[in-house]
Amino acid sequence: MEFRELIQKRRSVRNYTESAPREVIREILIQAQQAPSWAHTQNARCYVVDSPEMREDFRKAVLPEFNQKNSENAAFIVTTFVKGLAGFSRGVQVNEPGEEWGSYDLGLHDAYLIFAAKDAGYDTLIMGARNGEKIREMLNIPENEEIMSVIAIGKAAGEGNARTHKDPDEVIRFF
Ligand SMILES: Cc1cc2nc3c(=O)[nH]c(=O)nc-3n(C[C@H](O)[C@H](O)[C@H](O)COP(=O)(O)O)c2cc1C
Hints:
Blueprint: H1 3-9, E1 16-19, H2 22-32, E2 44-49, H3 52-62, H4 65-70, E3 75-82, E4 88-89, E5 92-93, H5 100-119, E6 123-127, H6 132-139, E7 145-156, H7 168-171
Antiparallel strand pairs: 1-7, 2-3, 3-7, 4-5, 6-7
Bound molecules: flavin mononucleotide.
Flavin mononucleotide (FMN) binds at residues 11-12, 14, 67, 70, 125-129, 149, 160, 163.
């Protein structure tokens, strides 16, 4: 798919018929590794929950009811970033965002991920409403990683909702 078309067609999907195969997910995550990161620290980490028995337990344990419903039949990718890398030089904070640069890097990584998924014929839903403590416990995620999103991935049952966007002149300033 042309990149422009990918951008236009990607939507958050909240209704899935099936998950994505492990090999496809792996390929998508390899594409996501191409995202830029602070000093090429490659601080993003991904934890994939795709086996049918674990998917069910995970969905019910870590997601609020509305997101459980949104992500039925999908697989899950938990994305985290290793703290103390982005925004730091030799362990010293470089400027005011500090650790927030880690979220910045992971956001870029996840953008690559959702476009790579769309390009491979799969849809996604980024979920910020999730229980981080339960995720850490279930997947044994180390304390030096900040857990951010759970991304549902699978075959869409239908189109995602169309949405409108702000007037560009409201959000863009040229000087
Ligand atoms: C950081 C982040 C957290 C989100 N959390 C949720 C969520 O918990 N549940 C949900 O249904 N959608 C969630 N979304 C999806 C947004 O609602 C969606 O991206 C937005 O409405 C725009 O729609 P679009 O993705 O189809 O363009 C999240 C998106 C982002 C980027």
